[in-house]
């Protein structure tokens, strides 16, 4: 077993691990105690969380918790570099916050969940999980991803326990729509199966969006079945390092209506441009995520 600690004070702006992984931006982490998305507020906890990554094609488990001023991790691999990437530990939160508007709702969101970082999930898992997100609450989206892991993921033995890696594109491509429906994916089942097939066969890859101008990158992702502009923006923001992306989901549209009505332009592209500018431009996606988590947890609708 590999183990290590990361001093929270060494991170610019610190970290709130629970807020980061339970804020609805990633569905590829789980809690050892089984209480993911079951606590109001979702901030400041010290539970163990785990996810899987692939190293040279083989799955590896990473477990991490926050307590006593450190991130404590253990893994089947030396996972420090993976954690820095997955949890964006090199982002300067204080500098990013300075780009946000000085609005009461924005500043309240930052104050409430200060230390929340964006995630940088593996592209395929991010793509599939957000295809599953349509008209679903965060806890339900998460349970779908766990069902996919348990049914199609490779087993990994670690510290006396069996974990399941997130399924490969081939594993999901080779299954049937009926089997995916049996796991509760509903009308999303054919979207997941066909998108996995596109990736498995080399027809398309979400990583091909990287390096394109932002709006071209969003258009590139809409090639996948079941991916519209909002889902594409989620993948860009939470996986592909486009920190200006602002997914226009129900919560953000409500935010626009109440706080930024001048940004509503009648279509996704123009409204997206306007709200990105209003929320700080280059790091607008950070502010969006703080607002999403703040407004969602305050509504008690999850």
Question: What is the strand and helix layout of this fold?
Answer:
Layout: E1 2-7, H1 17-21, E2 30-31, E3 49-55, E4 58-67, E5 70-75, H2 80-86, H3 93-97, H4 104-112, H5 123-131, H6 138-152, E6 155-158, E7 161-164, H7 169-173, H8 177-182, H9 189-200, H10 214-221, H11 229-238, H12 250-259, H13 268-278, H14 284-299
Antiparallel strand pairs: 1-5, 2-3, 3-4, 4-5, 6-7
Helix pairs in contact: 4-14, 5-11, 10-11
Tell me what the structure shows.
The chain is an alpha+beta fold and 302 residues long. It is built from 14 helices and 7 strands. Strands 1-5-4-3-2 form a 5-stranded antiparallel sheet. A two-stranded antiparallel sheet has the order 6-7. α4 packs across α14 and α10 packs across α11. It is globular. The mean pLDDT is 94.
Task: Name some characteristics of this structure.
14 helices; 13% strand; five-stranded antiparallel β-sheet; two-stranded antiparallel sheet
Give a nutshell description of this structure.
It is built from 14 helices and 7 strands. By secondary structure, the chain is α+β, with helices and mostly antiparallel strands. The two termini are 36 Å apart.
Write down the overall geometry. globular
- Give a count of the beta strands, DSSP E runs of length 2 or more: 7
Q: Supply the number of helical segments.
A: 14
- What is the makeup of the main sheet? 5 strands, antiparallel
Show unreliable segments. Answer: none
Rg from alpha-carbon coordinates: 18 Å
What sequence of helices (H) and strands (E) makes up the elements? Answer: EHEEEEHHHHHEEHHHHHHHH
Strand content: 5-15%
Helix content: 40-55%
Mean pLDDT: 94
Q: What is the terminal-to-terminal distance?
A: 36 Å
As laid out across the biggest beta sheet, the strand order is 1-5-4-3-2
How would you classify the helix and strand content by structural class? alpha+beta
């Amino acid at each position: 077993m590999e183990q290590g600690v990361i001093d929270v004070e060494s991170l610019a702006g610190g970290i709130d691990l629970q807020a980061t992984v339970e804020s609805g931006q990633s569905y590829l982490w789980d809690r050892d105690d089984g209480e993911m998305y079951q606590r109001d507020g979702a901030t400041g906890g010290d539970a163990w969380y785990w996810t899987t990554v692939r190293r040279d094609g083989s799955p590896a488990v990473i477990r991490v918790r926050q307590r006593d001023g450190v991130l404590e991790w253990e893994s089947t691999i030396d996972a420090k570099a993976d954690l820095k990437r997955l949890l964006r530990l090199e982002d300067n939160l204080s500098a990013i916050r300075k780009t946000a508007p000085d609005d009461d709702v924005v500043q309240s969101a930052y104050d409430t969940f200060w230390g929340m970082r964006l995630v940088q999930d593996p592209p395929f898992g991010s793509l599939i999980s957000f295809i599953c997100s349509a008209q679903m609450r965060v806890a339900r989206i998460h349970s779908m991803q766990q069902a996919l892991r348990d049914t199609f993921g490779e087993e990994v033995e670690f510290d006396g326990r069996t974990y399941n890696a997130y399924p490969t594109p081939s594993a999901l491509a080779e299954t049937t729509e009926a089997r995916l429906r049996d796991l509760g994916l509903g009308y999303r089942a054919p979207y997941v199966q066909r998108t996995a097939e596109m990736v498995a066969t080399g027809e398309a890859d979400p990583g091909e969006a990287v390096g394109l101008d932002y709006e071209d990158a969003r258009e590139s992702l809409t090639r996948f079945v079941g991916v519209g502009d909002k889902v594409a923006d989620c993948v860009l923001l939470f996986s592909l390092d486009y920190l200006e992306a602002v997914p226009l989901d129900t919560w953000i549209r409500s935010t626009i209506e109440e706080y930024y009505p001048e940004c509503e332009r009648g279509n996704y592209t123009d409204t997206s441009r306007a709200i990105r500018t209003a929320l700080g431009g280059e790091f607008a996606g950070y502010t969006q995520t703080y607002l999403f988590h703040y407004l969602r947890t305050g509504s008690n609708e999850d």
